[in-house]
């Protein structure tokens, strides 16, 4: 089975890296055309019917998708658009790779569920016209954080098991003699490598989805404004003013981003050492503010009386004027009866005080003892 190796010492945006990637991409495209012309794969056949030597060619779409995701031309003025298109092409090729494997029932139950979830969200995004929709992680189907964590752990364990199987079959294949090659071991080796590429394909699809979401939120780069050269000193004043007006119009048309092109210095001094005015200023701006603070009412003094405030609140509906009801009239009559009762008690106390003044203690009935 063929594999593609990238030189890690090269930068992905370098010309040498992109040139090598494009050459490999074209060779794989030619290989894909040959495979389709020979009809090596068919929807009507099963995995058992597939020739062992043909299994390795199932990975062509994977490597095409991998190379498409790495395309980048920083010197191209349309680099932003080209990057988005290359990522979409890569996503399409990854899906084509997984669908082909699904036709041969190579994907297990969990991976097939992930693929169907991804395809359903792809259909929703294609029918939705809003490009700023919230990013949906289509690789891990669960939205619950705990379930999603368990799903990631399960996916990680599955990847480790595939790597262990691959090491086992590679060591077993190396120990075989060239004249005594077991076709069953070779077949299992090819299928194990394909399963490992499936895991990588799902990871790459997740990264592509995230990158496309970031690029969709990114604003289009602003066009560069050409610098205006020095004016000719031989121009007249009218010509200078006319040229300045034309330049300002050009700048306003090209730069409509809500900011000024003039560079200003903060805290610039008003006068130069020679006494020349360097910037416009106002003499009495702070003076008026200080005067208002001195002669103003301040924060402690009220601006209206309590009665005025209550009247204003009643006009605005903040206070509801209560009407006198029957219960309130009854309470007022009870208060009047209490007042009358209190007056009778006062008179009785006064009479008792007068009685004690005129009659000494013990001068009453002595029970025939005095």
TrEMBL record:
Bias type Acidic residues, positions: 329-342
Region (Disordered): 225-245, 320-343
Transmembrane intervals: none
GO cellular component: cytosol; protein phosphatase type 2A complex
Ranges in a coiled coil: none
UniProt GO MF annotations: protein phosphatase 2A binding
GO biological process, one term: regulation of TORC1 signaling
Protein name (Swiss-Prot/TrEMBL): TAP42-like protein
Organism: Ascoidea rubescens DSM 1968
Lineage: Eukaryota, Fungi, Dikarya, Ascomycota, Saccharomycotina
């Amino acid at each position: 089975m063929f594999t593609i190796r990238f030189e890690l010492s090269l930068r992905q945006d370098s010309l040498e890296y992109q040139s090598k990637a494009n050459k490999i991409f074209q060779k794989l495209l030619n290989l894909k055309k040959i495979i389709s012309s020979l009809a090596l794969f068919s929807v009507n056949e099963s995995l058992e019917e597939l020739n062992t030597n043909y299994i390795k060619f199932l990975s062509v779409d994977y490597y095409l998708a991998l190379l498409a995701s790495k395309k980048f031309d920083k010197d191209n003025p349309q680099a932003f658009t080209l990057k988005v298109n290359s990522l979409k092409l890569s996503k399409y090729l990854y899906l084509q790779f997984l669908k082909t494997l699904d036709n041969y029932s190579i994907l297990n139950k969990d991976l097939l569920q992930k693929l169907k979830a991804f395809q359903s969200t792809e259909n929703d995004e294609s029918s939705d016209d809003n490009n700023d929709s919230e990013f949906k992680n289509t690789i891990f189907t669960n939205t619950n954080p705990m379930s999603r964590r368990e799903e990631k752990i399960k996916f990680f364990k599955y990847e480790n098991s595939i790597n262990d199987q691959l090491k086992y079959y590679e060591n077993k294949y190396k120990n075989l003699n060239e004249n005594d090659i077991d076709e069953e071991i070779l077949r299992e080796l090819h299928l194990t490598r394909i399963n490992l590429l499936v895991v990588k394909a799902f990871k790459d699809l997740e990264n592509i989805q995230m990158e496309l979401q970031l690029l969709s939120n990114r604003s289009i780069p602003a066009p560069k404004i050409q610098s205006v050269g020095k004016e000719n000193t031989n121009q007249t004043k009218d010509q200078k003013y006319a040229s300045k007006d034309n330049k300002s119009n050009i700048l306003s048309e090209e730069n409509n981003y809500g900011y000024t092109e003039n560079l200003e210095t903060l805290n610039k001094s008003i006068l130069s050492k020679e006494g020349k005015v360097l910037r416009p200023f106002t003499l009495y701006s702070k003076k008026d503010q200080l005067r208002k603070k001195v002669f103003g009412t301040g924060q402690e003094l009220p601006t209206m009386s309590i009665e005025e405030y209550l009247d204003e609140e009643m006009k605005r509906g903040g206070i509801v004027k209560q009407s006198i009801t029957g219960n309130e009239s009854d309470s007022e009559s009870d208060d009047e009866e209490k007042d009358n009762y209190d007056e009778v008690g006062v008179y009785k106390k006064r009479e008792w005080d007068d009685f004690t003044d005129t009659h000494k203690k013990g001068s009453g009935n002595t029970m025939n003892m005095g």
